[in-house]
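Schema walk-through. Below, the input block comes first and the output block second. Nothing else is stored per chain. Lengths vary across the set, and this one has 380 residues.
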Amino acid sequence: MSLGEWNASASVFDDGETYECGNGSLFGEFPNTQYNFTLQVWEGNCTKDESSGYISENQENCTVNHTQVYYYVNVPPPLLEIELTAPENITYEFTDELGTVPLSFNLNTSSAPTCTYSLDEGGTIEQGECANTSLIELVGGAHNLTLWVNNSEGATANATVFFSVLLHYTNETENETAPQAPVISSPVNETYNLSTLDLNYTVDETAYNCWYFLNGGEPIDLISCINGTFTPAFGANSLQVAVNSLSSNETNISETVYFTSIYEEPENETANITISIITPANITYDLSADALNLNFAVNSTSPATCTYSIDGRTAVNCSFIAPLYLNSGPHNFTIYAYNDEGNETKRVFFSVYKSASSQLNAGVLLLIVVLFIFMLIKRR
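--- output ---
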């Protein structure tokens, strides 16, 4: 490590004094390594030792302080990116044979990379020196592939693609009882805000077994090939229905339906917190002569922390409840409660009315208090 002059303009020590320092740079020979140096600051009539460059501490009228500083030379690895060019998010069709789909990708690294991939969430397969290859003997249906890459510099990246394979057979004997591809009527390509969706589809009389694929996952049986329901994932979804004929042993698959789900479970169903606000209610209160007394309850299956706020002001712990003296006009009261299982918020809007005489009396009282304090100060 080479050390120049200290690169700060000043350093502050325990006695509160600030000492000016020179400017310069610090260097480290090795990345991701911790270094340290000692900063020497002096005050008074001090003489520097020409050979060592330091100030001797045994000088009269000379005060010397030392500060040890640690710093870390951190060089993050360069960003590693994958461009997965095949398979694509499409349906590959094959006739009279199982499917063979290319696996090709581009990497932006010059360091020695290591690649592995997984087909349909099965075991990982090492891909040698990250050369392109082929996925062979793919059966009909939905598939997904995930590719992982890392290099000698410690950078990592991964990419996932969903695709499907559709197999056709030209043998007329096999096609005599081959089922036609299912036609999905629900869901359709739109956005849903429901916890469960209807799965409606039609198949011909030669379909003996049916199942569906959600987001390229494992096949899920559809008993007796009848319509049913399913639970979508939050966000973008894809769905396919497949049919099979026992006599021909041929599988046929529907077109892929793409749709979006924005449904989220309400927070209070997982938080197990309920808030009841009795006072204030959504009404107008006449507080010409009285204050507003809060009345609420917070219940939870496990201990919860609770705070409340009036008109968005600083939150107050729910254990402290005092009468509220509010001005005329609109107001709001908010309670927030949370525990390890979740949180819940409840807000009430209300208004306050005060007669002109009550507000005038309050103003007169405030003026009297101010004058009284002024007279006490003047007498001193």
